[in-house]
């Protein structure tokens, strides 16, 4: 059975395929050599289940999406106070590669611009640049759940042309922010930016952030305190000088990179990875930004959407009659809750002829969840099964809708209809 969420993602990708605005990054010559049409979207739920659409296996360099992760590693290794003594947390309103520090503190304004990211590299305690890079690579790899590899060409290309970052490195040294040799710190920074990832890797990294530092399958990578701080700077500074617009319109902590990737996080619920290498003037993927915006709007993912019970979902599943299963849903239902219900019902469809979805104890439901549950019924019918809804208040299917035929006001009515349907079918 085709999955509903999968179709949503394919649809959102298709909606943006024609978008050709923006341009490849060319200030790192090797980045201008990629296929501009590459396009991928992945979604990893908190339990690790992953949806992929487009070129999900296509690898690209992580670039600035590395910044929150190195910042997290610095927090993890030396603690918040020591990190705060070197890097601020204020949005800069400047370009990512601005040669600037805070005028009062003489520190980089935040860890999401190059100045702050280079400073963060220098905070990772290690005996040599190689040892420092090894720590960074291992830490990112733990977020992904596989070992990330270096793109040697991109690394050399950036190192050979990195005057801007060299200027930032020496400026930081002059203000006493960098204790180590700036060229050695920059070499590690270029290597971290040149690690190769896929959209699915980013979605998994996002899911690990969403779970407060716990990889969905492999367990804890870092502490919830580290992640709270990391997500905070992603909210305020992750999308550079477009951060305000991003928070209002999309409302997901996120980070973009000039390699064309974006990672976005819905805390507690899911991680998103998008890839499309044509960039806007801020250095963020044009299609990536638009896809995130559509996802957030269509699936109701804004992180400040207030709900009463984020744990709302399937409370009870039982089989009162042979090959009839009742799924009882409680609480407030948004995208992630509906995704879970749909996935479980789809996954168990061999066990029943009739699924009765009891939403009579659902308090509140948003548009995305409503259309997913309504589509589930249609999909079950299309596969020769039956989907009935116990929905006395017409929460999912409006009373005047022609799909109202599958809607009942009590479980007993639905079970009687199920018996009738099964009998008719066997005649
Ligand atoms: N490596 C790139 C740089 O330092 C990263 C920039 C980015 O992705 N915004 O210029």
TrEMBL record:
Q: What is its EC number?
A: 3.5.1.2
Q: Where does substrate bind?
A: 64, 114, 158, 165, 189, 240, 258
Q: Which HAMAP family match?
A: Glutaminase
Q: How does it assemble?
A: Homotetramer.
Q: Which residues form a coiled coil?
A: none
The chemistry this enzyme catalyses reads: L-glutamine + H2O = L-glutamate + NH4(+)
Q: What are the TM regions of this chain, as residue ranges? A: none
- Similarity section: Belongs to the glutaminase family.
**Which InterPro entries does this entry report, sorted A to Z?**
Beta-lactam/transpept-like, Glutaminase, STAS_dom, STAS_dom_sf
Q: Which Pfam families match?
A: Glutaminase, STAS
Give the protein name, as stated in the record.
Answer: Glutaminase
Q: Which UniProt keywords apply?
A: Acetylation, Hydrolase
GO BP terms in the entry? glutamate biosynthetic process; L-glutamine catabolic process
* Organism the protein comes from: Mycolicibacterium duvalii
GO terms for MF:
glutaminase activity
Q: Does the keyword Hydrolase apply?
A: yes
The answer to keyword Acetylation applying to this record is yes
Q: Which domain of life is it from?
A: Bacteria
């Amino acid at each position: 059975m085709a999955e509903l969420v999968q179709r949503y993602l394919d649809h959102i990708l298709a909606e943006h395929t024609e978008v050709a605005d923006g341009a490849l990054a060319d200030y790192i010559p090797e980045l201008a050599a990629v296929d501009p049409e590459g396009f991928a979207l992945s979604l990893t739920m908190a339990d690790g289940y992953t949806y992929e659409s487009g070129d999900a296996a296509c690898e690209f360099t992580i670039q600035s999406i590395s910044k929150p992760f190195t910042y997290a590693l610095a927090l993890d290794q030396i603690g918040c106070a020591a990190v705060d003594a070197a890097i601020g947390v204020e949005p800069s309103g400047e370009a990512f590669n601005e040669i600037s520090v805070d005028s009062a503190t003489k520190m980089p304004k935040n860890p999401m611009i190059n100045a702050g990211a280079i400073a963060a590299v220098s905070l990772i305690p290690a005996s040599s640049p190689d040892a420092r890079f090894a720590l960074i690579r291992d830490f990112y790899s733990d977020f992904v759940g596989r070992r990330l590899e270096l793109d040697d060409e991109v690394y050399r290309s950036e190192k050979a042309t990195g005057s801007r970052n060299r200027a930032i490195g020496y400026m930081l040294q002059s203000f006493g922010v960098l204790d180590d040799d700036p060229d050695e710190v920059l070499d590690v920074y270029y290597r971290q930016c040149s690690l190769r990832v896929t959209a699915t890797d980013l979605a998994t990294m996002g899911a690990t952030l969403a779970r407060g530092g716990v990889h969905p399958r492999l367990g804890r990578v870092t502490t919830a305190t580290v992640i709270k701080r990391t997500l905070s700077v992603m909210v305020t500074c992750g999308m550079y000088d477009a951060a305000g617009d991003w928070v209002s319109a999309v409302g997901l902590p996120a980070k973009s990179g000039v390699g064309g990737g974006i990672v976005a996080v819905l805390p507690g619920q899911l991680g998103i990875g998008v890839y499309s290498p044509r960039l806007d003037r801020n250095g963020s993927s044009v299609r990536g930004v638009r896809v995130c915006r559509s996802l957030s709007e269509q699936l109701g993912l804004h992180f400040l959407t207030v709900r009463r019970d984020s744990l709302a979902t399937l409370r009870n599943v039982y089989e009162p009659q042979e090959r009839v299963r009742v799924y009882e849903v409680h609480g407030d239902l948004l995208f992630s809750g509906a995704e879970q219900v749909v996935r479980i019902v789809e996954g168990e469809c061999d066990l029943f002829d009739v699924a009765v979805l009891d939403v009579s104890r659902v308090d509140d439901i948003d548009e995305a969840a409503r259309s997913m549950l309504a589509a589930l019924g249609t999909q079950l019918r299309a596969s020769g099964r039956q989907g009935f809804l116990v929905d006395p208040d017409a929460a999912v299917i409006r009373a005047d809708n022609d799909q109202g035929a599958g809607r009942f006001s009590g479980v007993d009515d639905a079970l009687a209809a199920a018996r009738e349907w099964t009998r008719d079918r066997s005649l």
